[in-house]
Amino acid sequence: MDTNAALDDLLLWHQVNQFLTREARALDEEDYDTWFSMLAPDLHYWMPSRETVFRHDETPDDPRRSYFYNETLDTLRQRVARLGTGTAWSENPRTRYRHLVTNVAVTPGDTAGEYQVCSNVLVYRNRLEREENWMVAAREDTLRRGGDTLLLARRKITLDQNVLLSKNLNVYL
């Protein structure tokens, strides 16, 4: 690999890491305006539910089957808008979050200006005095160039847990 190509790959990896770090901070701070500005208009954001089965019974994930999230940009906006209505009882008082993103790998996508990004995420949630949850997941993202910036166009979240022990799922991974 020549030096220029290696430097281009390193620069892209750095840009993607910066994007994921800014996204994690926006989610931790509930800065949803910033988060929405990072999402593509045709976003598909989904998290299939997990099932513990024997290896020979495993099937590929399918967004038409059971899932925790299967969202578009518009439906995510609706979910967030609910926080301001006074009817989101499970978020008053608010939940505290911390997103840790690691093991980021970037490869070119099938379409020019798109990149396939794999990462792991660990999300800590604390609510009220003693309610704590950890969620660990793998993410498969498609990032797309949008002018000078990157936009999240697709995200598939695969939780390591097959049973969520939290009382609600008011968190975006």
What's the alpha carbon Rg, rounded to whole Å? 17 Å
Beta-strand percent range: 35-45%
Q: Tell me roughly what share of residues is in helical segments.
A: 10-25%
Tell me, rounded to a whole number, the average pLDDT. 88
End-to-end gap: 35 Å
Structural class: alpha+beta
User: Which segments are poorly predicted (pLDDT under 50) over 5 or more consecutive residues?
Assistant: none
Q: SSE string, helix = H, strand = E?
A: HHEEHEEEE
- Shape designation: globular
Describe the strand arrangement of the main beta sheet, using strand numbers. 2-1-6-5-4-3
Overview of the molecule:
The chain has 173 residues and is of the alpha+beta class. It is built from 3 helices and 6 strands; from the N terminus they run H-H-E-E-H-E-E-E-E. It has helices spanning 3-28, 32-37, 73-81, and strands at 39-48, 67-71, 96-108, 114-127, 131-146, 149-159. Strands 2-1-6-5-4-3 form a 6-stranded mixed beta sheet. The longest helix has 26 residues, at 3-28.
Task: Please tag this protein with its features.
globular
Brief summary:
The chain has helices at about 5-30, 30-35, 75-80, and strands at about 40-50, 65-70, 95-110, 115-125, 130-145, 150-160. The protein has about 170 residues and is an alpha+beta fold.
What's the SSE blueprint?
Blueprint: H1 3-28, H2 32-37, E1 39-48, E2 67-71, H3 73-81, E3 96-108, E4 114-127, E5 131-146, E6 149-159
Parallel strand pairs: 1-6
Antiparallel strand pairs: 1-2, 3-4, 4-5, 5-6
